[in-house]
């Protein structure tokens, strides 16, 4: 997922890949910039080298490289330092600009997707290891010798047969083209599609090590705060050609801006019993990549020559440790709702899924999970309830669920994880317990049972206190939310009681309470002041 000259275009704060137009004209550059004054159409096709995966190894197959159209990208006609005309490529990568015969120009293709109006988006690809310079592809200079002049331009992969031997100019444009795939589908289901600005950070220096982002030590490909970071370290782990990885991370951006995710992130893998918010977020990201590509096989290339990798069958129903806490169960259910495979009991397509994500899921009182999504998709599609219930049953999840998972019985042998939410009215007190049964020594606090979820019923506006009292000196933290928004919290640490006091308006709130260090039991009380 990942004779060229590399230079820094300081005036544009852009990293320029200057290269001649593949398959273009053979005109000789003229000595100056002036033209004859006769209008000329300069047109052609913008492409990039697309390297597919080898299905048998899940690595990249450079021998099968194709030149695919760079769709929706900005193309500029430049004379000296002046931008003469600007356009965007169409769905076939074609562009058309207006100049003059006799004039000398260069083409510049900017690694961006931009549109304003009723439907709008703004996506750029930058190098986080080069002062966030935006990638652009520059042609060599050419002189226009006819009123209809053709100039094609291809961004090459940089692959030399056994290693990368020149600039990897295609990488930013393959990344953008996967985002184009997403936008192309969403613009059909939402005629008023509005997407916030997104910056995608890719560099051949981005390695799977922790450290400073501006040196490329990004740890892994990830999304955070309207930015996606993608790995690019050759012979280690590259993601610029891993379309499912790119779209997965874009899915997290979409949740953050157009839908909602309450996921706390952290390490996760197949078969993990996860915090239900993490299970939904990661399962959604995987399923989303399959929906957008109409390809349920998620592939990630890595290792020497990008020749190896791994794959996940998103559509597989036989997942390890299925349940409401499983990303495998979530991705299987969501993709089965979308597609029309022979094993599926429903096939709603993208529209109904999108409607839930930008509608009821965004405003739910509960934490986002498979419980909220499935409650709402059933509410919105009554004729499909039986089929949707079968998908739940196939993943060992109760059919008659609500947003609180109040009917769920699967505790995986640990009684303290059920009920999913402990409910509190003013004056109520309960002893609750957290566990680390499903954690390894290196994982974060994002597994099943690490946290207790509380449903807090506030009958009238006023001051209330959520009191957390440790039984043996545990460090307790508490966070209170309303419809996904953090209202008040206390994570100061210490071994004494935690009193989270706030002037609440009447309504339903949810709390996330955790105890660090060990398995722990503690007392919880909701007090009206």
UniProtKB/TrEMBL annotation:
Keyword Acyltransferase belongs to the record = no
- Per UniProt, the ranges with Gly residues bias are 23-37
Query: Which of UniProt's keywords are assigned here?
Result: Signal
Signal peptide bounds: 1-16
Check the record and name the InterPro entries matching this protein: Ig-like_fold (IPR013783)
Span list, region Disordered = 23-45
Record's keyword annotation contains NADP: no
Protein name from the UniProt record = Carboxypeptidase regulatory-like domain-containing protein
Question: What organism does this protein naturally occur in?
Answer: Kangiella japonica
